[in-house]
Amino acid sequence: MKGKWRYAPALLCMIAIFISSSRSGDQLDSVLPWVQRWLPFLSDFNPMHYVAYFVLALTIAYGMGRLSATWKGCLLNVLVCVLYGLTDEWHQSFVPMRSPDPLDLLHDGMGAAAASLLVLLIWRLSDWRRSRNYTAS
């Protein structure tokens, strides 16, 4: 993929988060037992904030390409995810039996930071291995 199309996965991830956030508290409570069959340790959907924003940050890093291999790109990625998380919490204020929660935003940021740092680490290790292989030949 080239150019702006590289951000298509991030856009799809944002749409999935928006749709999930549009579910009322009752709807989520009715789905939880089904999810617990596959993930019995899950007592609520709070850990999904880490997962959703981890994936969002990975897709944004994909869109950013080589920029995600820099500290500036890493911080930009987390900033974009946290700003989207803010809009998501605001959106939830209009959904029945849902409310904005600062802890959710913290969890969003933690998931995004973990993914961004992982991407940065992988790029750096990859560059380091390539440079060692190049000089060893």
TrEMBL record:
<keyword id="KW-1133">Transmembrane helix</keyword>
<dbReference type="Pfam" id="PF04892">
    <property type="entry name" value="VanZ"/>
</dbReference>
<feature type="transmembrane region" description="Helical">
    <location>
        <begin position="48"/>
        <end position="64"/>
    </location>
</feature>
<dbReference type="InterPro" id="IPR006976">
    <property type="entry name" value="VanZ-like"/>
</dbReference>
<keyword id="KW-0472">Membrane</keyword>
<keyword id="KW-0812">Transmembrane</keyword>
<protein>
    <submittedName>
        <fullName>VanZ family protein</fullName>
    </submittedName>
</protein>
<feature type="transmembrane region" description="Helical">
    <location>
        <begin position="106"/>
        <end position="123"/>
    </location>
</feature>
<feature type="transmembrane region" description="Helical">
    <location>
        <begin position="69"/>
        <end position="86"/>
    </location>
</feature>
<feature type="domain" description="VanZ-like">
    <location>
        <begin position="10"/>
        <end position="122"/>
    </location>
</feature>
